[in-house]
Protein 1
Amino acid sequence: MLHTPPFPAGHDAQIRAVQIRASGWGWRHAGRHNQAVSGLDLQIEPGERVLLLGASGAGKSTLVHALAGVLGDAEDGDETGSLLIDGRRAAEARGRVGLVLQDPDSQVVLARVGDDVAFGCENLAVPRAEIWPRVRQALTEVGLNLPLDHPTSSLSGGQKQRLALAGVLAMRPGLLLLDEPTANLDPDGVIEVRDAVVRSLDRSGATFVVIEHRVEVWQDVVDRVIVLDPAGGVLADGPTREILSRQGERLATAGVWVPALPPRFPTRSPIAPAETLLRAEGLAVGRVPFGRRAASVVAAGITLNLRAGTATVVTGPNGAGKSTLALTLAGLLKPAGGTLQASDKFAAGIASEPHRWRSQQLLTRIGTVFQDPEHQFLAATVRADLLIGPHALGLSAAEQTSRVDELMHRLRLDHLADANPFTLSGGEKRRMSVATVLATRPRLLVLDEPTFGQDSRTWQELVTLLAELLDEGTALVAVTHDAQFVSALADEEYRLGTPDPIRLGAGAL
Amino acid sequence: MSLLTPTIRPSVVARLNPVAKLAVALIVSCALLLSIDWVSAGVALLLEAGLLLWCGLSARQFLLRTAPVWIAAPMAAVTTVLYGEDSGALLWQFGFISVTEGSTQLGLAIGLRVLAIGLPGIVLLATTDPTDLADGLAQVLRLPARFVLGGLAGLRLVGMFIEDWHSLTLARRARGVGDGGGPRGAARRFFGPAFSLLVISVRRGSKLATAMEARGFGSDEPRTWARPSRVRAADAVLVGIGFAIAGIAIGVAVWAETWSFILA
């Protein structure tokens, strides 16, 4: 007997797009005083593609986690109202919803590509004979043309996100949820993931909800924008173009990257003459692998001049050794070859090779902002953590307090003085990690991907602050993928993998 | 190559079901733990050597992986010879240290035992893919999937611990607390990052758990297995060989009248 599938031509007949309906829905995480989401009323029709926006703390992630059924039960929080997927509670819609999260590293479950994609199917008890065709199809859809036994540990960030997407697609969900899927990726990775999502949606016709503060990436993919209100409910809801023009201002203030309203670039007043602090000649960088004695070189033949009041950016593809170079310039790794020498004035009476400096001698000379802020947190409260550097310098108690108070004020951390650094939001952690470094007033700042995953507000504050430091004579070297950061600050660009540094802007002489 | 995807050369041993290999290692170990005498351990070691030739490891790999056992065995032997319970003729004495016929035999028995139990254990690990072992534990031994797969997924985080530890120690140096302070400073430099690592790992673990849950893991519904773990005739033969090694080792020791049952 023939029957007509209720789907438009070209869509996968096995996938039925999901309808979402929230009525007066709210959630309060256990142990928290404030509602994460409250009074939410909305309806999303099958096959709709929605971009979910809102200020930090508006409850976007909570909503998406609830739709995916991973928010937990009454023990994990209090639910009010109802949130239904095809008329059933979200927690009961197992297998109908697929979720891809932000961090590429914490979503890989198994060691081999094929096994990882098969994992979701196994959990849904898909028969073995059907699993492997699904796995191959999902991998083709996301454009990962790798052998099934390829190790997942050797994938790049963008590949890992596409792997996570493939794992979800193989489950054939009627609703695809993405929670900032590209925030931790370089520009190529962002495009890879976006295109893979579009390809799969065109084929499956599934309902789609994405959270992402970089609007530019998704604005041409989605047909509806919903803005959540931190005070509860929905702030704005409608066609993409309309909402972005009507709410653009407000969204930009809340940290959303609205393409029509890019952040302002700071005006610089370069100092002259720019004295050289650190000079690398024929520098080779590498790390000593675990359990080995000799470093394995990742980049070599690097010649660089880091000068006071000058911003140097290091760019280049993933795996080119940018972070290793940053750590070497920062005096944290020993050069694997060539020379790295501080000027006499910069060294100020100690050895000229930064890796031979004592930890405390680094403090006033080179400050390093790590890619993951959590790696540099040492104390249980923001204030105590900021005091560590000034204390190690042996400053007077009064001087320590005044420096830290001033920094907390400048970086809007006052209200968090007694909070544990690990509990801060992404933007707060970044500001905090910069503050810890500035507390000892180093003459050279080394930053590894300082703007990764930051909202436009934190980005603006960070760039403005760095411009001020440059004007005061601090030398700056930053590893970055962020083209806007390069345009806003860079005097010199060193592209790893190319022979000569590219000189830009007023600092180029 | 990494912890979870070891380079395993195709070999007879590598193709066997991990559960069968685990069974052999357990059978031989249990048999050898029943007595402390040099004959049973020596015979078992000799018979195992025949099996280990088939394990598919190159001589270099074999020596590198088993190095801890080669170091531990003579050390255990020498310690026992020097300080072990004395019996029989006195061979050599220096102060408290006395070497007797009895302690020499005991030392030899202990040294051989460490080798005979340690070598197959390590070779088993070196020729087994953790994913295959998990499949075997869950499908052949019917251990709960939640437990087995949770452990397997957690194992993947170990590689990240090493990366995190490296970054944490560099960050300490960058923040001015990377050296100095004498032994107290050194202790702080170990426990400080250890605590941060714990926090970071717990977080990573909970994110991984959410990702796994989002893919339908952890419910009480039955699940299927994409990779079948089957027990074949060759696996039965291997377990048979395990019993044979244990049996022959005990038999020869009893015949040579060196068998001394520890519970007797």
Protein 2
Amino acid sequence: MNLENFLHTIFLISGVFAIIGIILGIIVWMKDPYAGFLWLLISVPLMFFAFGGSGRIKMAKDLETKAAIGIQHSWWVLSFGFSGVILFPAPFFVEHGGSSAYVMTAISVLWLLLGIVGVYKPHAETGVSITI
Amino acid sequence: MDEKHNSKWPWVDALGDYAVVPVHPKERRTLTNQFLVFTGVLACIAALWGGGALGTQLNLTQLIIAAIVGSAIVSVIGALTAYIGGHTGTSTYVNLSRPFGRYGGFLWGLTAAGITCGLGWFAVETWLFGVMIHDLAPNAWWANVGVASIWGGLLMMTTAVVGYKGLSFLSYLTVPLFIVLAGVAFAMGVYQGGGMEKIFSIQPVNPVPLSVAITSVVGLYIAGATITSDVGRFAKKPRDPAIAWVVQVMVIMPYFLVGAGMLTLGMGGTRITEALLLAGAGLGAYAMAIFGQWTTNDNNLYSGALNWVLLVPLSKRTVTIIEGIIGTAIAAYVGFSAGASLQPFINFLVILGKFVPAVGGVLIADFYVYWWYKKVPVHERYKLKIGDKIGEINWVGWVSAILGGILGGWYVPGIAALNSLILGFVFYAIIAIVCDKAGVSLYLGKYTVSEYGLAPSWIVKRYLRGEKQ
């Protein structure tokens, strides 16, 4: 798989799981808005960064620019995933969000891994800095 | 011939990390990078911790007003200095060499960044890190104030040793976490307070006047606002660091302040990290303590080392390690010694800190007023060029900063940091223009800029010896 398709795939998977996170967030919000806030605080921006990354890569002309955009947006996926891994298993959210908190922890781990790959691969293939 | 010696970029980076020469165009970063690094610096003491403290002093309406007004003042000052860094691509030290002369830039850079940030605040914040970790896990051996200061200090050194890339890496990883944590603190604060209506009616446990709170907000970050060039010089476009600064200060800073303040207000005056733990944020409370302090303190060490390398005949990496070990040792000593206090040390840093905004005021006056008066176009101002003559001492800058710091810091009522900055600005603008009209030179001695930028001669000799080997 070439780099561009690889990045589109990463962002598509991340975006789809972000939509699942938003749906779960709305469900938790209806039960307890204070807890549901976290689901939306992580999933909504992540969805925009994932699909936005894909859109920007399509518009970019050269491979280096595509790689740079891929790295930037993968960082957002990675770091929001990192936030989810730390916060979803916390007592407050497990108590108020129930099993949905565990589902989101698993999704966050996936985001974290996808983000790491999305930062590393464009850097390894094009030499673009990982902190562009 | 390596990248440091090519024809398009005529400089030789003898010190590393572009401490005394303009940043190479290939190393320039995006607006996103600038935003994340600035926000990483802001993320702990300056906003979340400060916001938590304000939540014990103000009601919610006052808290929002103080956050917005204070942030607006800091955003204007920081944007003006950040633009200078983005435009010139040079560090705070190099930029300060214009309004203070080469020796002045060195001395004030050492005072503001080398001593105050690199040694002083690094030690204080490493010790505070130990205190915070101890508060979170009082019975664990690894959370003893001294022990936590040691591993915390070493952790903070790692990214500072790597340099700007290390700072960027950590900011990229943690800034969204802080954005989420501030939102979580906000939601938990409303929950603990019993809803928005009730939280608006809660009265603070230690009330203070609004003006004092605005002073605190400005004081939290005004020193940072004067040394934005160290980050801004890495920007691709001159306006990027100014935009990144304004967005993070006007949007993220009030959001952090109010989010953290809401939680401590709702919890009745507990410290922010403890409040998060008690409210059920679990690992989030530890993450705030560890990463918040780390992202702020590695910047202290980094800025400090950038200035110390001009004085110490060692590489920047070695200087960073030595500086970090000294700061960590001080923090650990205080942590292990019951009864020992960092208060006299903090008082000394606060005194130095009163001069830092005055230095910023002088820099702003020189770049935006004096060079405008001299009819130099903005795109030409402060551009470092080989063969340029720079004053060894600009006496007007020295006089203005000392007067501004003393009068603003001790004698004029109001916000001390803002007073110093405004007075430094006014004194410099007036004295420099009057002297120019009277034909009195602002500069004593001249230094000719070489391909090594503003590197002292002994550094150039050491670099050439190393190159021959």
